[in-house]
From TrEMBL:
<dbReference type="InterPro" id="IPR017911">
    <property type="entry name" value="MacB-like_ATP-bd"/>
</dbReference>
<protein>
    <submittedName>
        <fullName>ABC transporter ATPase component</fullName>
    </submittedName>
</protein>
<dbReference type="GO" id="GO:0016887">
    <property type="term" value="F:ATP hydrolysis activity"/>
</dbReference>
<dbReference type="InterPro" id="IPR027417">
    <property type="entry name" value="P-loop_NTPase"/>
</dbReference>
<dbReference type="GO" id="GO:0022857">
    <property type="term" value="F:transmembrane transporter activity"/>
</dbReference>
<dbReference type="InterPro" id="IPR017871">
    <property type="entry name" value="ABC_transporter-like_CS"/>
</dbReference>
<comment type="similarity">
    <text>Belongs to the ABC transporter superfamily.</text>
</comment>
<dbReference type="GO" id="GO:0005524">
    <property type="term" value="F:ATP binding"/>
</dbReference>
<dbReference type="GO" id="GO:0098796">
    <property type="term" value="C:membrane protein complex"/>
</dbReference>
<dbReference type="InterPro" id="IPR003593">
    <property type="entry name" value="AAA+_ATPase"/>
</dbReference>
<dbReference type="Pfam" id="PF00005">
    <property type="entry name" value="ABC_tran"/>
</dbReference>
<dbReference type="InterPro" id="IPR003439">
    <property type="entry name" value="ABC_transporter-like_ATP-bd"/>
</dbReference>
<keyword id="KW-0813">Transport</keyword>
<keyword id="KW-0067">ATP-binding</keyword>
<feature type="domain" description="ABC transporter">
    <location>
        <begin position="3"/>
        <end position="232"/>
    </location>
</feature>
<keyword id="KW-0547">Nucleotide-binding</keyword>
Length: 232
């Protein structure tokens, strides 16, 4: 298993109040698969993804990614893991406003161990003609394409997407989902994606439903659907 999570617990404590956000989570995802995490607001989706991505740490349990138990890494090792192995895509693109599209991608490729070619990645997200534009000159969908290019240029083993279409209209959302599916096929990148939209689960190999910090359903989807055929 590429991702192997078991008995993962996480609580946030404020004063005398303990908020048990993840309770004995178990989940698995194979290399090259697309996984989708569904669940209501506050169910723990981002917390789970942040722990898998090395942004946050679990309190107990096991989180193995590509054979490495990341709960055992020290802070420096966790930073290296996050920097070298994980690509992040967020709802609000987080591009650097005073850098061009090309520069936003170059700053990541410059600090990566085995980056992909910047122009190849720009072509893969169909943004090569906007290389010298600034983020403010782009639509939301175009900015999300750039943020996907920035995430994949480091050639990550795992792409973590937190509501990647949450700020986009219907058609643009579908084109971004199609792009993610293309990235998965072209580079073999394992993708884990959080969404509120249950229809998106049709493109995933595995679907995890989270409720109140627990996986209430984990389903294997044998008949994945191309993103362009998904409607909602
Ligand atoms: N850094 C933090 N400190 C304290 N509580 C936190 C922190 N991060 C998350 N929480 C709490 O953990 C719970 C789960 O949050 P999380 O962001 O994981 O949920 P989510 O399912 O991703 O929600 P949404 O769909 O709204 O983004 C919430 O009750 C939230 O308030």
């Amino acid at each position: 298993m590429f991702i192997d999570v078991s008995s993962l617990k996480k609580s946030y404590i404020s004063g005398a109040v303990v908020n048990e956000v993840l309770k004995e989570i178990g989940m698995e995802l194979d290399e090259g698969e697309i996984g989708v995490i569904l669940g209501p607001s506050g169910s723990g989706k981002s917390t789970l993804m942040n722990i898998i991505g090395g942004i946050d740490r679990g309190d107990s349990g096991r989180v193995i990614v590509d054979g490495v138990e990341i709960n055992n890494l020290n802070n420096d090792q966790l930073t290296d893991y996050r920097r070298e192995q994980i690509g992040f895509v967020f709802q609000f693109y987080n591009l650097v406003p005073n850098l061009t599209v090309g520069e936003n991608i170059e700053v990541v490729s410059n600090i990566s161990k085995s980056p992909l070619n910047v122009d190849e990645v720009l072509a893969a997200v169909q943004m090569q003609d906007k290389k010298h534009r600034f983020p403010r000159e782009l639509s939301g969908g175009e900015q999300q394409r750039v943020s996907i290019a920035r995430a994949i240029v480091k050639n990550p083993k795992l792409l973590l997407c937190d509501e990647p279409t949450g700020a986009l209209d219907y058609q643009t959302s579908r084109s971004i989902l199609k792009l993610l599916q293309q990235v998965n096929k072209k580079y073999g990148t394992t993708i884990l994606m959080i969404t509120h939209n249950a229809a998106i689960a049709a493109m995933a190999n595995r679907i995890f439903k989270l409720r109140n910090g627990e996986i209430v359903e984990a389903a294997l989807n044998q008949a994945t659907v191309p993103a362009e055929r998904i409607e909602w």
